[in-house]
């Protein structure tokens, strides 16, 4: 869940971080350049930094008879 309290704490999802060109580091307003999987006491979760999981693909096909009453 995006807004769940059980989300993993890491610098990639922190309000104080900004992604930089290298994929394994972020720029933290409090600590400077840190790894995305890092964590500190200043962590504040930002749900907007998280990418939601894609929706599952529907594999079942329906026939016209399925929609008749």
The strands making up the biggest β-sheet line up spatially as 1-2-3
| Structural class assignment | mainly beta
Strand elements, count: 3
Mean pLDDT: 83
How many DSSP helices? 0
Principal-axis shape equals elongated
Percent helix range = under 10%
Oligomerization status of the protein chains: single chain
Radius of gyration: 19 Å
Unreliable stretches, pLDDT < 50, 5 or more residues? none
Measured by DSSP, the beta-strand proportion falls in 15-25%
Q: How would you portray this structure in words?
A:
There is one protein chain. The protein is mainly beta. It has one domain (1-50). Helix content is 0%, strand content 16%. It is built from no helices and three strands. It has strands at 17-19, 25-28, 32-35. The two termini are 37 Å apart. The model has no long low-confidence stretch (mean pLDDT 83).
